[in-house]
Amino acid sequence: MLQVYWKNATDKVVGSDHGITQTDLTGIENAMQRAHETVVQQCREGTLGYAALPSQRPQYAEGVKRLVAKYQPDARDMVVLGIGGSALGNIALQSALNPSTWNLLTDRARKGPRLFVVDNVDPALLKDIMKIVQRRLDRTVVNVISKSGETAETASQFMLFRDLLQRKVRRGWADRIVATTDAKKGTLHEIAKAEGYEMLDVPDDVGGRFSVLSPVGLFSAAMCNIDIDQLLAGAESMKQRCEVMDIMQNPGCMLAAVKYLMMAKKGKPMHVMMPYSNRLHMMADWYRQLWAESLGKKTDRDGHDVFVGPTPIKALGTTDQHSQVQLYREGPNDKLTVFLEVKKHPANTRIPEDFTDVPGLGYLAKRQTGKLISAEKLATEFALATSQRPSVTIRFPEINAKHVGEFLYLYEFTTSLMGELLNINAYDQPAVELGKQATFALMGRDGYDDLAKRTRPFKRTDKRYLA
Ligand code: PA5
User: Fold this and answer.
1) Ligand 1 centroid to residue 343 C-alpha, Å
2) Ligand 1 nearest atom to the CA of residue 202, by list position
3) Do the beta carbons of residue 180 and residue 145 sit within 8 Å?
């Protein structure tokens, strides 16, 4: 199972100015107990939607499997259209659980379609992907994902791909689209019903960034042969571990305690996630959204302005040792680094027995690459600790669906606890709305005239740029 190692975040390693002391832990115990009780109670009452996904809503996995049985046998390409919580989980799962070369493998070597997650409206990206998939659109599945059904990015991607399908496939084009959206209402829901698309539900009570274990994340994963039962089983086992109220036993409570104390008492609002594994790199992207949208809030639940929120930062070991670690060691001591470590990597290569008599290279001869990356991680942990920079390590015994499920649930639960400790609503994102609406206004949507006027001074003409 996933393990959390936090000794390098304590006073014993980095000193009491920067590390957590026994007194700090004792001091937070009551607040943590209350936070834990509230979150666990919400899980039991069924008011915390994401917590029900691992085992209490089997209908979602069943719906996904029905569509996988229909589409997977002949699908060669799959395009996911979505953004934010409707895309980041899909990317994280695919990157972690399939090789990075998945799309380069031959159709025979892959047990599922190539996967393209289009999570932007960058014109060049859209064009590139449309060009690639249009060669075999009759064997492509387009999965449009939007809870609200009206997000401008997803809506425009959808209109482009729908048009492409209509033009190139003609008969049966609508059957190439699967809409993942609200089960009962919304613009996308209405269109999907009217045009006869297959549909999957975004649970009403699960916000985008908590939806990876719902049909939002599960469909593309299962299409690409990821074992979604194991993913859910892993999440369920972490859920059970997180039910015990004991900071020392409960990985969610421990992680939340360290992160909260670092932010509130040790002057460390910067929370780096640094996987020592390319496969887990996109997990850090998923975490960034979860952490930022859930915990970055202006007001607390009593209506006071608090302007809280740790800043999530994504790094990659070993790559960023040669880019970021200089800052992490000698810059402001305002960061907590969470390393993701893998005990048994999906592959391990022995370095050839060459250059044995060359002092600068000989030590590498015959060593395993897995051993090298572990040594590099330990070296960075040591180097940070030497400069009184705290860190935590989350260890994956190996990268498989079960451990990834554990990890996803661990972070969702930790986010809920953080929300309670900070006394904020971790499930809304009011600050994202204005940007979404200003886009509507700038693109001329009816009913947004006032907002369009307010955005006018921000429009630049070429004259306002420096030459
Ligand atoms: O986490 C969230 O709620 C957001 O990131 C949404 O997922 C994102 O804005 C996309 O929204 P929708 O699924 O409604 O298109």
Assistant:
1) 34
2) 13
3) yes
